[in-house]
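Reading a protein record of the kind used here takes only a little practice. The record below shows the convention in full.

——
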Amino acid sequence: MSHSEHPFDAADLDFSPAQMASMGEDVLRRIVAHLQALPETPSRGTLEGCADLCRSLREPTPEQGAELDALLSPLFEEWIPRSFNTPHPGYLAYIPGGGLYPAALADFISATTNRYTGIWDAAPALVQLEANTLDWLRDWMQFPDTTRGLYTTGGSMAMFNAIACAREKLLGHNIRSGTLYVSTQSHHCIEKAAKLAGIAHDRVREIDVDAHYRMRVDVLQQQIAADRAAGLKPFMVFSTAGTTNTGAVDPMDAVANLCAREGIWHHVDGAYGAFFHMVPELRPLLAGLARADSLTLDPHKGLFMPYGIGALLVRDGEALRALHSSTAGYLPDNQSEFYDPAQYGPNLSRGFPGLRVWLSVKLLGAARFRAALAEKRTLAVEAAEKIAQIPGIVMDAEPQLSLFAFHLQSSALTTLDAQNAATRALMERITRRGKVMLTGAQVGERFLGRVCVLSFRTRREEMDICVQQMAEEAAAVLAEAAAK
């Protein structure tokens, strides 16, 4: 349908109620059909020929509007299918998200009501709903009442704000002397965020890991001492609650002890794993997380939200406010009784990300989120136990949370390069079968296959398929290697 009932009024960008209802129904019908068909679609879309497709999609700005159906048809039938099928129940690649339907409804409500939530005065009740959700995150992580936080577009921006906050509090204007510490398995976005926050690459220290890919606290302590002796100022340590490569959980309690003794800010990257802390019986797996000075969370991972929402919690909320709080002649005076997003984050103009969390948790209840997270860990542990028994599979990292890593090995694979190639082939062969999608990671000289269970749609059926296909394809790869 065209957008206007009055073609002569070129300046009219609005739609009639009947048009809006019809457009909404058209979109909703396609979305529901898309979600209903997910189990029967390939876990990884068809990616061959995408370069030519993208070249063909280049076009000048359209001067006239098109019919909605003419736009939706290629979007749903041609372009969306040619991508990683991230909401698929068999998506075990990278760190899955999922995309809860209530969160999509929340985004639609947010975009159409279009309320301004940058400052409390503009939408007090709506900002309070967002503040409530940040308090829920705080309580699930067992942080104190002094904690404040903000929603970001993802973990990378949460890291940036955490570094800026620690830098402001501990270094002041003497930024160049500050040193920051990560493990060799930390997410690469930390170094990028550090650079954006004024901490140059030569002031970021990479700390070795142990045989289980966890940060070595003894090496960390030695490096801190060496930097102090060189006249530098160690100010921030990053530990990880579930690394992307192997799912390793750093010894956060030991790191917290060291940071407390040394007067160093301890940040926990919990983008992947922190939400398992919601489940009381799983909290021992994340010992020390609640002691962090700040914490990155990704609701688009462990809370199963659509992509595009991260979060930061800071134990000393006033430190976060000191970094961001400002005012201007056109703004109302800052107030301190209620949460005010612009006083705790860099954005003045912003969307309403907290509505995703609020509507989803209110509709489903926290108990169902805890049950889903507990199930994902159980599925991962059970699958890892079975996959470890498959001939040729060597388990490199048992599931500390819901991710495990392995490689393929046999007498026919006599070199590391051959083992790496075989492991890559194993991942690709399983993915091409279309039921589950797997990806690997280069860790040092070895390529590891990975399975990460964190989509709310992944249930026991998908994990049984994963184990079965792993056994079948591992046997096929090893047989081909032996025949050469």
Notes: The longest helix spans residues 460-483. The chain has two domains: 105-364, 367-483.
